[in-house]
Design brief:
By secondary structure, the chain is α/β, with parallel strands linked by helices. 35% of the residues lie in helices and 21% in strands.
């Protein structure tokens, strides 16, 4: 089973999908069932210099918009803390960016996740991979994060590496 965690300032939402792409859990990350790996939707490192890490510069070259981690310090710090907890349990951890997955897999990339209609469009498109219904934008990001990790285990994703961090994206 594979987990995705959407890191927020007020709360973190996790989603777990199984080998058959069924959503089996949505809730607090401290209560997730046993999983092989987790994708965390938060920067798990900071740039050595400038605004962007090398892995983010690669996403920009691909035409994928990104917020520099320097502007997400509190979320990144929380993500780093969660990553440590997961690793201490023997769970493999990846940094993921659900919007990049949406763009690469064409999961309603132009839809605005913070609107009701946008969430519905994302749900409809995401359901080609993982059947979902009536999820918040945070829950959608958690499911997409879990999907990204599952795709990696199926050989359908790659790690964009840099000396200052890495991001897992679909192929």
């Amino acid at each position: 089973m594979f987990c995705g965690i959407d890191v927020g300032l007020k709360r973190c939402v996790s989603a777990v999908i199984n080998e058959r792409n069924e959503l089996i859990y949505i809730g607090d990350y401290d209560k997730i069932p046993n999983v092989v790996a987790v994708g965390i939707d938060a920067p798990l490192s900071f740039p050595k210099s400038g605004y962007f890490r090398k892995c983010e510069k690669e996403l920009l070259k691909m035409g994928i918009k990104i917020i520099p981690p320097i502007f997400l310090k509190r979320i990144a710090s929380r993500g780093i803390e969660i990553a440590k907890k997961m690793r201490s349990k023997g769970i493999e951890v990846f940094e993921v960016y659900p919007y990049a997955t949406r763009v690469i897999l064409n999961i309603a990339p132009r839809s605005k996740k913070r609107t009701k209609n946008g969430c519905k469009e994302i749900e409809k498109s995401l359901s080609k991979y993982v059947p979902v219904k009536d999820l918040s934008h945070d829950e959608l990001d958690a499911v997409i994060s879990a999907l990204t990790v599952k795709l990696y285990y199926e050989g359908k994703a790659r790690i964009i590496k840099g000396s200052d961090g890495s991001i897992l994206v679909p192929i």
